[in-house]
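#struct-queue
[09:14] JT: dropping the first one here, sequence first, then the structure tokens:
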Amino acid sequence: MSPLLFYFFAALTLIFGVAVVANRNPVASALCLVVSFLGLAALFVGLDAYFIAVVQVLIYAGAVMVLFLFIIMLLDLKAEERRKINIPAYAGGGLVAVAFVVQLWMVLQKFPESHSPFPPLALAYGQASVDDVRNVGSTLFSVHNLPFQVVGALILVATIGVIVLSKRELK
């Protein structure tokens, strides 16, 4: 991925990530989260992690956002009222963000591998091609089979619980 595209998608992800928090309307905030997820998927494509990018779009930008919008519509959330700007809180948050960026910059300058580009995955593993889907599937169904099944059962129970709790009496 060219550096120009990387910076574009990184900025897109960060700007819409901030817009998720800054928006007063929950639906607009959820849509900003979708754009942020899409920018993150584009960054995964730049890392040649195509499977993770597709999962990012299908699972997070698709299924999770439909679930968020369903909950927003079910709870009938309204736009938040405008409040007075809390200047000390904004100044403190900005100071913490600047301190984090400075610390991150100092750590990356002292880390020697941060100055060299990351090798392609095929070269890192000594293979001609890396099959992401096969590696993830074999690991998921051999090593992590029990946790995978437990998560599936928990999601099923949570879905049934949401349906039972959200059921309204007809008048």
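[09:21] JT: and here's the second one, same format:
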Amino acid sequence: MILRRLVPLLLAAATLGGAALPSAAAADPFAPPKGKVFNGLTAGFDTGDFQHYAGKHPAVWQHFIAWGGSYQYTIKNSARAGARLMLHIGTARGQNMPEKYSPAEIARGQGDQFLVNLTRDIADVGAPVYIRLMGEMNNCNNAYSSYSCGGGRRDAAHSAANWKLAWKRAYLILHGGDVAAIDAQLDALGLPHVQAGGNSLPVPQVAFMWAPMVGGAPNIAALDPGVYWPGSKWVDWVGTSFYSRFPNFTGLESYYKRFAAGKDKPFAIAEWAIWGSDAPAFANRLFDWVAHHKRTKMMQYNQGAQAGGIFRLSNYPASARVVRHRLAAARFLASAG
């Protein structure tokens, strides 16, 4: 029995620093060249509408998927569009909807089959894939948040501690490699071994983006983004959401200094959009902000999933002209290569 427990620990030591396990530094973030920013698109089933109004092809295309749900179409769509794949993985099909698993259930391995399948499929992509796992975790509208919108604490299965354990489990599995070595790392976290997958998993090119909101909803200390920080070795990118309806540039500045500059991470505007009324001044200010914050390596415009949706640039002609003009700069890349 003792020997059986030692084997995975020895394997972990032999592979420490390899792709299957986080070392002292996080994995390759697959960032653009120095001085460049990936032009990104979020949601939707095509890139044509965004390209028409923004004037530039997206280098990265982010899709929202649910734990246990279909995602193969996102791989096909991104390949067809010539864009790198980015996946936001939630526990429900949308905000304020029933979840498939709680963070605690994920941490205990109940969602492992999905993770194992996803690891294999993104390894087959043969190119970098970005994982934005349970983003906006400090937003009460998301099932995996630890507090309700009334300010009440949800049950222990939804605690920030369990959210961080779920993150670490997913990070280990989705980086692939020898399963015994992964199990040794899970042992160190006090978590069950991988519940599916056999003896080994392929090693995909994957980078994890940690992306809460700059302030909680509701804005309470228990939903401060730092409560959900899993540790530098478990994070490859730092990102956040930023919309014209809530132009909190003071909060954005503080967040950037604290988690991107302060943690030596590439930074992404993981979701941004014009929301509610045309806001060309906001768009210009955001592009100015990006220009002066050199760690910013990706901007993801969220056009929404529906044609004619509230974020579509077609609704905001003055803002669309600003976006088109600013994205024309050579520093915004239309391809990740």
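[09:30] RK: nice, looked through the second one.
[09:31] RK: Confidence is low (pLDDT under 50) at residues 1-20.
[09:31] JT: good to know. DSSP finds ten helices and eleven strands in the chain.
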